[in-house]
Amino acid sequence: MAKMTEQEREEFLAGTHVGVLSVAGEPGRPPTSVPTFYAYERGGEITMFTGTQRRAPKRIGLIKEAGVVSLVVQREEMPPAYVTVEAELLSVGKPTPEQMLTIARRYMPEEHAQGYVQTELGDPENIVTFFTFRPTRWFSSDTSR
Q1: Residues 23, 66 contacting (CB under 8 angstroms)
Q2: Deepest in the core among 14, 31, 53, 114, taking most CB within 10 A?
Q3: How many Å apart are CA 98 and CA 88, to the nearest integer?
Q4: Which tens digit of pLDDT belongs to each residue from 44-73?
Q5: Alpha-carbon span 134 to 87, nearest angstrom
C-alpha cells in the first residue's frame, strides 16, 4: 500500500465518489456515519447538503455542535484506494438550488438532478442544510502501487 501524494489525494477527492460522512455521536453513542454526495475542487473546500426527509434534524445538530467531521471516499473496483479527510465546519446555511445542482450533477443526469433538487427543496417539512468544510488532515492509500 502506498500513501498518495498531496496532488493525488486531492484529485482523488475531487473525483465522483459517494462519500461516507462521520460525525461524533451523542454522549455514549458511536459516531454517526451516512453516505453523502459532495463537491470538492483541488485546494478548495468541501461542500455538501443534507435533508431531514421529515425526520428530526439530529445529524445537522451533531455537525454544528462538533464543528468537525470525517469524510471517506474510496475506489470501489480493484485495486482499492481511499482518501479520508478530517475537516472543520466553515459555514452552515440554506442552500440555493444552484448550489444543490452543482453537487447533484456530479452524480446523476441533468433531468434527474433537476428533479432531485426540486423534490428536496419542494417539501416544506424537509429541512435542507448546506455545509462548507475546510480539509485539515488527510489519510490516503492506493494499493495499485
Answers
A1: yes
A2: 14
A3: 23
A4: 999 999 986 666 678 899 999 999 999 999
A5: 5
